[in-house]
Amino acid sequence: xxxxxxxxxxRQVLLVSIQTDLDDQAVLLLQxxxxxxxxxxxxxxxxIDITAVEIVDSFVGRMLATIASLSRLLDAQTVLVGMRPAxxxxxxxxxLSLGGVRTAxxxxxxxxxxxxxxxxxxxxxxxxxxxAGA
Length: 134
What we know:
134 residues, five-stranded mixed β-sheet, alpha/beta, single chain, 4 helices
């Protein structure tokens, strides 16, 4: 039996931390589970942390793009964080651009990206200048 990937809620963001390389069945389960979690929680953002992932094949790459599209349709933005250089190279070599998936180097940067964008959406597109508070 394929294990499900846990989905954690941090305020209005869902965090998916993928700790192992996923088989096709696990990716399909994650897609379904995450779509339901977005609806159930009303989350405005999804962060998928792939720091521990060493291999991404074309199916997993396409499913990450599909997950981002599903989340967007359900009114949540997706950020993919922690991508290793080898994974990025593989995705480029496979010709997968992951359209619609934004990336950040770290979980912290991904969460801040979603917070800024959600704040801008609530204020009509005005993003507060982060440097002004420094």
